[in-house]
TrEMBL record:
Keywords: DNA damage, DNA recombination, DNA repair. Gene3D superfamilies: Nucleic acid-binding proteins, Recombination protein O, C-terminal domain. This is DNA repair protein RecO. It holds the Pfam family RecO_C. The keyword DNA damage applies. It comes from Moheibacter lacus. InterPro entries: ARFGAP/RecO, DNA_rep/recomb_RecO_N, NA-bd_OB-fold, RecO, RecO_C. One of its GO terms (biological process) is DNA recombination. Coiled coil: none annotated. Residues 1-77 form the DNA replication/recombination mediator RecO N-terminal domain. The gene is recO. Belongs to the RecO family.
């Protein structure tokens, strides 16, 4: 059965001599993997569209009880101005898509998650400045759809990373406090769409990112530090 749906490109890996396996997050069917053959042929424009965070419309042949489907057609739906051209933004895109590939498991529609991803990507592309905090804001707000958004309350001295709650008593396990807690609270109150300049210093961003990755590790089984983290730190050092 042929399926037509808007989609977001998450990854594309080489398959054989002339093909690729592409992972999409689609509007109508959630996480979907497709195979495309003869992708490197001169007249085949598919390869140029398989860039992480690209917004596309695709047609694929869905095979019942199979996890890999044949890609029949793909077209771009958005012309981006910066996220695939500016080195800093490209690095953030690669980092975030690596995390999305690790944490997204849904093979069914999730309109709210798709809207969040699409709107976030568009906002990121449109920002000419003040986007250095985007990956922090994105990772924090992604937790709403993964089921462990922080229940943070101001006025409390500690934030328990294991249970995702604020507390006045020192937690028995992993927690943040003092300046780390202050910056985490600041991140939660941040609205990236209205932000005209970055809110955190380089060292603060590294500290917040370390907290977020630890938070993901505690709440997602088999979550590992992204390989692209080192590149991200180098680009923003």
């Amino acid at each position: 059965m042929l399926i037509k749906t808007p989609a977001i490109v998450l990854s594309a890996i080489k398959y054989g001599d002339s093909g690729k396996i592409i992972k999409f997050f689609t509007l109508n069917h959630g996480l979907t993997s497709c195979i495309s053959k003869s992708i490197y042929a001169k007249k085949n424009k598919t390869n140029s569209l398989l860039i992480p965070f690209n917004l596309v419309e695709l047609v694929y042949d869905e095979k019942p009880n199979q996890n890999l489907h044949f890609l029949k057609e793909i077209n771009s739906t958005t012309h981006f101005n910066s996220i695939h051209l500016q080195p800093e933004k490209t690095t953030i895109v690669l980092f975030l898509t690596e995390i999305l590939n690790a944490v997204l498991k849904e093979e069914e529609q999730n309109f709210a998650l798709f809207d969040f991803l699409e709107n976030s990507i568009r906002a990121f592309d449109q920002k000419n400045s003040g986007y250095a905090d985007f990956h922090l804001w994105f990772l924090l707000n992604l937790t709403q759809f993964l089921g462990f958004y922080p229940h943070l309350k101001k006025g409390f001295s500690y934030f328990d990373l294991n249970n995702g709650i604020s507390t006045q008593e020192i937690p028995h396990e992993i927690y943040i406090s003092d300046s780390d807690l202050f910056h985490f609270e600041k991140l939660i109150s941040l609205d990236f769409h209205d932000q005209s300049q970055s809110q955190f210093s380089q060292n603060q961003r590294k500290s917040i990112l370390s907290t977020l990755l630890k938070y993901y590790e505690l709440h997602i089984s088999d979550f590992r530090q992204p390989k692209s983290l080192e590149i991200l730190n180098q680009v923003f050092s």
